[in-house]
Structure formats: C-alpha cells, structure tokens
Amino acid sequence: MISLTINEKEVTLDKPVTVLEAAKQAGIKIPTLCHHDLLKPWSGCRLCVVEVERMPRLQTACTLMAADGMVIKTESEAISNVRRGILEFLLINHPLDCPYCDKAGECELQDLVNKYGPTVGRYKEEKRKVPESHKDQIIARNTERCVMCTRCVRMCNDVQGASAISIIGRGNHSRMEPFSSESFDCEYCGNCLTVCPVGAILSRLYIHSFRPWQVDKEVGTICSYCGVGCSLVVQVRDDSIKRVIPKLGFGLNKGLLCSRGRFGYEYVNSPDRLKTPLVRKNGKLEESTWSEALSIIADKLTEIKGTSGGSAIAGIASPRCSNEDNYVLQKFMRVTCGSNNIDSLSRTGFAAAQKYFEDLLGQGITANIIDGIKNSEVVLVIGGDPTAVNPILGLSIREAARRGASIIVLGHAKGLEKFKTVQVVPPLFKEAEVLEALLVELFRAKGVRAELPFIDKEMRELSEKAAEKMDLPGFDELMKALLNSASTSIVLGMDLIQRTNGHRSLFGVAGITYLLEARLYLLSERPNEQGLIDAGCVPDMLPGGRPMNIPDFKSKFEAAWNGPIPDDDGLTLFEIIEGIKNRNIKALYVMGENPVFNLPGGPFLKDIFGNLDLLVVQDIFLTETAEIADVVLPALGWAEKSGTYTNLERRIQLQKQAVKTSRGMEDWRILSEISGRMGQKMGYLETDDIMREMAKVSPLYADLTYDEIGKGDCLWPYHGKPLRGEMNEVPPVVDAEKDYKADFYLAPEKLLFHSGTLSRKSPALMKICPEPTLKMSAASAGKLGLKEGDRVQFSTTAGSSEAPVSIDESIKDNRVFLSNNFQGSGVMDLLSFSIDEVTKAFGIEGCEVEIKKHGIKA
Amino acid sequence: MFGETVLKEIDEIRVKYPDRRSALLPSLYIAQREFGWLSQEAMQCVAKALNLSESIVRGTASFYSMFKHKPVGRHLIQLCTNVSCMILGAERLVDFLGNKYGLQPDGTTEDGRLSLVVMECIGACGTAPAMLINTDFYDNLSEKRIEEILEKYK
Ligand code: SF4
Ligand code: SF4
Ligand code: SF4
Ligand code: FES
Ligand code: FES
Q1: Last residue of a domain, one of B33, B63, B93
Q2: CB A169 to CB B55 under 8 A?
Q3: Minimal CA separation from A179 to chain B, in Å
C-alpha cells in the first residue's frame, strides 16, 4: 500500500502508478500534452510538472512514480509560470488559426492556453512556415499547428506497428512527416488522428463540415466490417453520420480502430443504395411497392412448397446481418417454408472450420479472448495475414512480439514481416503435409495426452505412417519454439481451409492445439460469422449449435416455434448449388449476401441461377446476385438498425441504430412480413422480441437481455452449456498426390482496405486502394520481365482479366494474388473449385494462370 | 538496389548489434557512399536491408546534418564559420568561394565539381579557419591556400 498527499488530499494506492495516475484516481486533473493513455509515458512537453516536497526541481507527473509519503502540489504560482512559459514557446511558431481550424472545440492546446495563458505573445521574429499538405487523400496535415508531442509517431510505432511517420529534421525545423513527405501510404488506421492533441493531422472525411460541439448525438455501437467487432462511436447531426471515432478504453479494441472501421462508413450514404423493392417484369427489374413484392414472394414460395415440398426451397444467411436477422431467417426457412436448407458463405471458411474443430475438440474451442494473444510466448500464424483480415486482432500479435513472444508464420503474412521470428514456407499447396509433419514431431516429443482418445489414436497412426522428419528451412526452429512454449496462441486464417483436402490441415491444427493446450483463434472476415452459426443458420444444427438429429432438442424448438421442423439434415451451401443445377431446388432466398461475386465460378453460378423459379435477394446494394434476382428487397444497413452480433471470440455485442432512414426495412421484418403472408405469423414488433425468444430457446443465450449485452462482456456461452466434441472418425484422404509444376498459380488475396460489397461503395477506402492489382514476388516479376505498375493480362481455364502488377516482398513462392473486392474483376470468377468432402468448403488450390504483359500479342 | 557485396557489408554490421536499429547509422554511411547522397531510394535500400521501416530510417537520417540530404558535387567542402573561424576571416572565405568559383553555401558549382556546406565548429579552433574537403582536413586557411588546395580536387 502506498499513501501520499496530493494537494493536501490523502491518496492511497493499491498498486504502483505514476503521480499523474494517482492524481487522476483522486479526482485531481494535472494538465498534460505529450501524455496519452494509449501510449507509454514520454515526458517531452513538461506541462505536467508538479512540486514534490524535498525534491529540488519540478517533476513531470507523467513519469514520476508515486512513492510512499510523497507530498505533492499540482498547482502553484511557480508551476503556472512554467506552464505559461512552455505554452508561450509552443505558440511561437503556431499560426493561431483557431477560428478556421477543425480541432477547435476539442483542441488540447487551445484549452491549455485558455487556462494558463499567455494572453499575448512576445515573439517578434518570423514564424517558421511549413505549408499545409493536401497531398494525402485521407489525412490533412498542417505541421504549423503541431506541438511536437510525438504522440502520433509513438502511436504509429509502438501501438499500430506501422512505423509510417516520424519526426523529420531537428530543433526548430522538426516536423512530423510520412516517409514520402507527401502522401502517407500507410495502414490508414487513423489511430494517429485519435491521439493528436491539436489540429495538425485531421481526417479529410469530415474537415470543414462540422464543429465538434455541433453533434446532435453520439451513439456507441460496433463496426460493420469484420469478425473482431470493434466498439466505436458514431457522431450524428441531422440524421447523417458526421464522423466515426473510437472511444478510449471502450470495447475490446480499447480506443483503436482500423482503416475500414474508421473510414469505411460512408457506404451507408452511397447514392447506389437500393431504395424501393424491385420486381422482374418482362425480363427487367422494375421498381415496385413493398406490398406487391412481398406478395409475389409469399405466393410463389407457397406454391413451390405445395407442389415440390419445402425441400425445394433454400436460404442463404448473412454474416453481415445480426443474430436476430439470421435467427428469423432460419426460423422462416425451417418452419414457414419447411426446409432445413439453410447455410451461408461462411461454409467456405469460418463455419466449416468451426464445425470441424468443435466436432473434434468440443464446442467453444475457438472462444478465446483476443487480448490473450498479447501474453503468449509463441504465436503461430497459419493461412492468412491477421493484420489484413482482422486488423485489431493483428495488433495483439504485434504487441506480443514487442513483449518478446516468438511470432511464427507458416506461409506468409505481410503485416507481420517486421515482427516475425521465424517464417516457414511450405512447398506449394502442401501446407497439410507440413502441419502433419509438425504434429507428428510434437506427438513424438510430448506423448499421449490421453484426454480425447480418438485424437490420440489418429496421431499415433499418423506418426507410425510418417517416415523421416521434414526437411524445410525454419522447421526445426518452429518445433523448438513450440515445444518450449508455456503458452501458445494459434491464429488460423481461411486459406488452408479452402483446399480440396482442407480438413487435413484442420486436423493438423486441431492436433497441435490439443497437444500444446494452445488457444485457437479463427480469423473471421465478416462481423457475424459466429453469430449466424449460433443463430441456427447451418443445415444440421438448430440455434445454440444443437444437432438436429437429437429429437429432444427438435421438439423443444417445434413447440416454441409453433410448427414442425423437417427431419432431414438439410443441404450445405454447395449441395444447395448442386440442387439448383439439378433443378431440385426451385427457390433461393438470399439475405445480405452476394454468392455470384463471392464464390468461385461466378459465371457458372449466374448461369444455373437461371434455373430457379424464384430468386429473392435482400440487400442494401444491387449486387451481382441481386441483378439476376426475380425480386430485390432493400434492407437497412449498419447504423440504421439495431441488433446483436457475435464476434470471433464469441462476445455478444449490440449494434445500435444511429440514424433514421426510409430507404429499406430490417431484414427480420421483411421475413416476418412474408411469413405472415404465408400463414405463419411471427409476431415480432421490435428486435427485443426476437432476442427474448432467442434467450428462451437457445441454450447458449439463456436469459440474455439487451441491457445485459449493453454492459459489455457478454461472452459465450452466456449462462449456457457447451457440448463436447463427438467426432470419432477422420475420413480417408481422397488426394491424388498432385505435383504443382506450373509457372504461376492464382490465389485470392485479402486486403486490409477492403471487404468487398461494402468497402467498394466507401469513397474513402476506394481512394486509399482504388483498383485491384496482381501481387507477385520479385522473383516472379523478374521471370516475367515485369516491374511494379506494368499492366498484365492473365487467364485461367475459367476466365481472364487484367490488372497492374504489384511486387510484394513477403510472397515467397510462385503464387500470384488477386483480391475479390472490385466490381468486374474479382479473383473468384477466375477460379474453378472442388469440394472438400469433410468440411464442405471449396478447394481452390492449384489454379494455373498465364500472365502476359498488356498489349503483347502471344 | 544494393548489390550482393554491399548487402553483405551491411549484414556484417548488423550482426554486431542485438537490435538491428543500431546498425542504422553505419548503414546510412554505406548508402551515402553508394548513392552519393541519401536519396529516397538510398534510404529505402537501407530500410530493406535492415528490415526497418522507411520512415524510421528517414527520421534518423534527417536528424544528422553531416549526412548529405541532397545531391552534392564531386567534392564537398565543409567550411567552418563558427566563432574562432569567423574571427579569423571565414566569412571572407565564403565570399571568396562565391566570387571565384560561383559557389554559394548549400550550393554546387555549375560543372558539378564542388559543393559547399557551411559548418558549425569542427574542433580546429586553434588553427582556424578550417574546413573539410570530403574526408580530408585543412586548417590555417587563407584565400590563396584554398585556391592551391582546390587544384587537387578536379
Ligand atoms: S494512419 Fe495509422 S499507419 Fe498511418 S500514420 Fe497514422 S497511425 Fe500510422
Ligand atoms: S502531429 Fe499532432 S500528435 Fe503528431 S507530434 Fe504534432 S501535435 Fe503531436
Ligand atoms: S478490426 Fe474489424 S471490427 Fe475492428 S475496426 Fe477493423 S474492420 Fe472493424
Ligand atoms: S505530459 Fe508529462 S511531460 Fe508531457
Ligand atoms: S570555430 Fe571553426 S573549427 Fe571551431
């Protein structure tokens, strides 16, 4: 226990903190400028000076540790004189353009000068001139306003880990600049903007459009982009979003955001938003009314159900929609339409992996707190770049590296290039072999864990089959690190799952997780991939992950839902597609998803969707899939509706309405309207009604309420009971060993700045990253005689496209990467696929691609 | 792009330190030797060779005035004009260089032969005025002596 006196007030501390923090605990505010709660103390500005008895000089409160018996004064004439002096110096070169500066109203310098003076400047010399820089499309930089606190630089270096900006020059000529001195070319997280105390760096998304005190309301909600589910604050004026900012210490991201969360919100106001229902008449989509559109759907579904049975209807759920939306969709499919054919595009990654791991290791195996990564000794990163897919989770890995963890990358992860300890690059498309070899070695070293006999048996069999040790650079180092690690986190991206034998890699990862008792994290590209599984949008499980084939569960749900649920297991995504092809499925209901663009083989899908008697799409944009639909229904978007989302660590969070709009209807409301018209009333008036029902029927949500969720920390299973794993057979590998001998292979790339459907309608993200590029290693570019920026044409058996080349040092093999974000040039259209018989995800490996320089005739 | 030998040279420096940032200053000298000055490209090469961020490299380099931050002529004159040298006429020498060679402080002669940087004290106050040409040191300077010395730097 430490006790000290601050301004004659007794303060007792239970753990050692700085004087600044101690004063804060006692309700005493000490002025600061270079200090920020997200950053380490720096003691550069000297504004926080205090008098400490028996210490000769003034001390900086932000760095001085509080000690027992200290007697401290935080305000005195001497202190005020010093503060005034410092501020006078800071104003020497300041342009004093506060009336014009967008920071005014939330500027720390202005507030400090207001409190401590000086009221006039005595400086008569020329001020230093640094012209304002408008070279960056997102961040406006006005260095004359800078007070050299270096908060931005420390944020970028020590927290974000991008190290994109620094202080250039020295003395009077110091200024904050990005490397190019013009545009930032960085990760555009905007976290530097959060910490800048003055108007030296500002987001161009809102400058000159409002004053900080002119917001009507601030709504605390969560981001709409990825499975991390960061908390943020939406500032609204006149029912339009003025700014999105993080809130210090709030949510799991604790005041940090990534580019998508901070700058990607403008899509909700895109002029391309759907405004009215569209109905296909004489082959053309025409504007229609809600009542007409809903009746058409209800009549057609009733007819199909009557003639061909409910199993001729299928639904695709949305990882962009809330738990409530998805819950209502699966109920609509199961009870109203009489079909268990409900799945989502998460089947191609997250849901497939989740199911496999849970069957093997028990429900909730991936429910681990993101923050825990920071305290790992080893972080094993497999199958994707966490800093691009789930940026805020990626920051935890960078922080782990700073704390001394070994970061091991299997494959490649560009955002960890400066943080990795070891990188192991598996032979092309042989990741499963490497993981199995690793598992065998670990099993040999660690022995039987004897908790899950089935896995032990499988590992023994694998190790008996395995010949000698794998000879791969870095492999031994990787082994050693894993064996010596007392706490291991495994971060798994979706790349390895999207293989014809993806389940082999999954077994490898599951085995390593089991042997090392590691924490397993699944990267999740969409905000509610976990939620839609829990809500029951999988063909074989009811809400709460309860298997369909246990009659007790089923009858409980039938009673709650007032109707029978079909007995069969339902079809998974690709079985649905197969069914459409064979004309067994006659109606497809798509909610908030764009399969034609997001699945491999788009042209083929477009073609077979023509077989359908009814294709309904509800979305906020006229997507590639909506374009070919029979009925298109405008939904509400992020910030326009409320609902809960479940993030990748299974935290249930509330996304709140911030603005009102007349553009569309909530997804669940549309469904319940149609259901009513089909004779099955749902009776929900607001989302609360749905949550109340979910909390009643879903074993994972027992007694969950919005109030409870609003308080935060609602982690899965909320008062619920998880199930144990129950897989006892790993299907044989159907692999005809392939040699990958072609010159180049095409693979999908996940971009930091994009997410597809939403991000391509976000002007800011389109400015940061305006067009697709074909990424390749320097070696590949050399082989093709290409340099950065050269335009190339490339073709696969499925199609062809063109894009400029971009050289990426982190790529170490002969794959070339294209993203799936830009209209008309998604990588998925160029890939053909096979299906993993176990996970039912697609395999898209080994897609040979021919590349030639644009304009050169073959 | 650095060639193999330069990369090896930098690598040898790097392994001497526990933290690769410590190898930054010596590597910048190598880059300056290779490129003539610390151009963006030079700094990018250093960043790549040390796996450091480009911005950290530039931030560090820009702090030191003795690095060449812009292209200079074949020979760089660094002339001291601090107190001792000034008292003994260094400013006249600056004028002399201007009149005779068309060489201004921070400038380069039109033929690209000479560049001039005016320095703070280079520690030769006892034999002031003093200057460096590239890495060669000269003191007790006068107009005549400078003229003679410069004959060696074509
Ligand atoms: S936006 Fe992020 S990455 Fe870019 S300079 Fe600021 S902190 Fe660094
Ligand atoms: S730009 Fe802002 S945060 Fe960065 S050093 Fe200047 S005042 Fe501080
Ligand atoms: S990490 Fe994900 S949830 Fe967080 S701000 Fe970025 S996109 Fe949004
Ligand atoms: S806040 Fe303590 S020195 Fe700046
Ligand atoms: S003053 Fe010129 S060398 Fe010291």
Answers
A1: B63
A2: no
A3: 5
CATH number for B121? 3.40.30.10
Q: Is the pLDDT of residue A168 over 80?
A: yes
Residue B38 placed within a domain: yes
Q: How far is CA A131 from CA A139, A144, A207, A350, A574, in A?
A: 15, 8, 17, 49, 58
Dist. CA A636–CA A656, nearest whole Å: 12
ipTM of the shown complex = 0.89
Please tell me the distance in Å from B150's CA to the nearest CA on chain A: 31
Residue A796: beta bridge partners? A799
- The 3-state DSSP class for residue A800 equals strand
pLDDT at A736: 56
What is the domain extent for residue B88? 75-150
**B15 shares a domain with B57:** yes
Pairing of the two strands A378-382 and A342-344:
unpaired
Q: What is the pLDDT of residue A734?
A: 57
Domain with residue B20: its CATH number is: 1.10.10
A585 to A224, A582, A675: CA distances (angstroms)? 32, 8, 19
- Name the residue range of residue A253's domain: 101-107+124-269
Q: Which protein residue's CA is at the shortest distance from atom 8 of ligand 2? A: A149
Asked whether the predicted pLDDT for residue A858 surpasses 70, the reply is: no
- Tell me how far the alpha carbon of residue A82 lies from the centroid of ligand 4, in angstroms: 13
Q: What is the pLDDT of residues A657-698, one digit of tens each?
A: 999 988 899 999 999 999 999 999 999 999 999 999 999 998
**pTM summary value:** 0.93
- Cα–Cα distance between A352 and A200 in angstroms, integer? 47
CB–CB of A170 and B51 under 8 A?
no
Q: What is the CATH number of the domain that holds A181?
A: 3.30.70.20
Query: Which residue, among A157, A168, A179, would best test binding to B if mutated, counting the most B CBs under 10 Å from its CB?
Result: A179
**Nearest CB neighbour to B56, from listed A166, A177, A417:** A166
